[in-house]
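step=encode ok
step=design start
structure_in=
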């Protein structure tokens, strides 16, 4: 008996050592990968505060020879326009994200309900739009001539409120997580469809809705082409369009042959904080998303598996 106990204890000890060694190796690998992924982000922030002379001498470095705010001074040179564009981007991102989550959640709930008469037809219609798109020109004609959204802030998020992919994925989550008996019990208790959706479906579907909200937030915040295509008034330009124009102007000043051929042009091109401005642009675009991500993190891991197949 004692011999068997000793053998069992030795096996447990060996298994414990293997598990402990496995955890150490896994933690080391994760730390190394985290540093590899984090290093470019840190470098972007550091270069945005580096002086032009330092970048010209030693290139991009984690320890620059000298620090400077020239990149940010260039960006904030037109502070009022920057503030206006920032306000537009914040409004579009926040309003678009909230409306996208609500509208997509409602459409997914409709095609989730088995007692909805046209459930299959609507699902096919959503799926069909995933396979075939009208293209840019028809979309532009519809948004400007039919919906009259040309040079309107609403065009930046209204046409994309419900993505077919998000609706179908969310319907899958409803099917896996919300049993029909729960909805039927709520209806027996006198709850109408609005109460069922907002009091039962929304709380259960928080991980999926948060994930869709995060993807929508990132997409709306990073979208510059829609604003460039539809917005003609400077006061309505989103931040991404303004920064893209600043970058284009900077590239023009530093590469235009006529301008740079003169002595003053050469001197200005050499002193222009081109690289630090590029990094400052990246910082302005990247920082809000970095601050927003922690609020979605607790739902993110579960939410990204909403389309997986159960085993």
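sequence_out=
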């Amino acid at each position: 008996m004692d011999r068997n106990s000793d053998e069992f204890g030795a096996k447990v000890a060996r298994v414990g050592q293997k598990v402990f060694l496995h955890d150490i190796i896994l933690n080391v690998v994760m730390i190394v990968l985290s540093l590899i992924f984090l290093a470019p982000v840190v470098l972007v922030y550091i270069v945005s505060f580096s002086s032009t002379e330092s970048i010209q001498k030693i290139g991009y470095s984690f320890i620059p020879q000298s620090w400077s705010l020239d990149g940010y001074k260039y960006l904030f040179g037109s502070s009022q326009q920057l503030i206006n564009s920032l306000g537009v981007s914040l409004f579009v991102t926040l309003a678009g994200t909230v409306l996208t989550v609500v509208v997509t959640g409602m459409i997914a709930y409709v095609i989730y309900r088995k007692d909805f008469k046209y459930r299959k037809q609507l699902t096919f219609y959503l799926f069909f739009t995933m396979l075939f798109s009208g293209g840019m020109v028809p979309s532009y004609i519809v948004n400007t001539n039919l919906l009259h959204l040309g040079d309107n802030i609403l065009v930046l998020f209204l046409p994309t409120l419900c993505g077919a992919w998000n609706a179908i994925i969310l319907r899958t989550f409803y099917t896996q997580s919300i049993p029909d008996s729960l909805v039927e019990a709520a209806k027996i208790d006198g709850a109408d469809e609005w109460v069922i959706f907002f009091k039962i479906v929304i709380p259960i579907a928080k991980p999926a809705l948060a994930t869709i909200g995060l993807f929508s937030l990132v997409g709306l915040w990073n979208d510059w082409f829609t604003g460039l295509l539809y917005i003609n008034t400077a006061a309505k330009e989103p931040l991404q369009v303004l920064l893209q124009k600043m970058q284009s102007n900077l590239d023009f000043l530093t590469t235009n042959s006529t301008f740079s051929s003169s002595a003053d042009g050469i001197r200005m091109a050499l002193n222009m904080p081109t690289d630090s401005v590029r990094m400052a642009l990246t910082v302005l675009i990247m920082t809000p998303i970095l601050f927003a991500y922690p609020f979605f993190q607790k739902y993110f891991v579960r939410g990204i598996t909403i389309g997986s197949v159960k085993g």
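step=design ok
step=annotate ok -> The chain has 15 helices and no strands.
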